[in-house]
């Protein structure tokens, strides 16, 4: 993951923050947070599919 995606993913999935909280914490728009989390999930799914 890119550093930007990693930060948003960790805050969402591991810390349980809302998208709104992440946007405020990181200083980006709500849509940017949603996009980064979506792309992070997609990347992780693709990378882990080989382990199935």
Description:
The chain has 52 residues and is mainly alpha-helical. It has one domain: Orthogonal Bundle (Arc Repressor Mutant, subunit A). 75% of the residues lie in helices and 0% in strands. Helix 2 packs across helix 3. It is elongated, with a radius of gyration of 11 Å.
How are the elements arranged and paired?
Blueprint: H1 3-14, H2 19-26, H3 30-48
Helix pairs in contact: 1-3, 2-3
Strand portion: under 5%
**In the residues, how many domains can be counted?**
1
Shape descriptor: elongated
H/E series: HHH
Structural class: mainly alpha
Low-confidence stretches: none
Instruction: Give the name of the CATH architecture.
Output: Orthogonal Bundle
How far apart are the first and last residues' alpha carbons, in Å?
20 Å
Any idea of the CATH topology?
A: Arc Repressor Mutant, subunit A
Question: Which CATH class applies here?
Answer: Mainly Alpha
- Counting DSSP H or I runs of 4 or more residues, the number of helices is 3
Name the CATH superfamily classification.
Winged helix-like DNA-binding domain superfamily/Winged helix DNA-binding domain
The helix content is over 70%
Can you give the mean pLDDT? 96
| Total E-strand runs | 0
> Radius of gyration, Cα only, in angstroms?
11 Å
Largest sheet: none
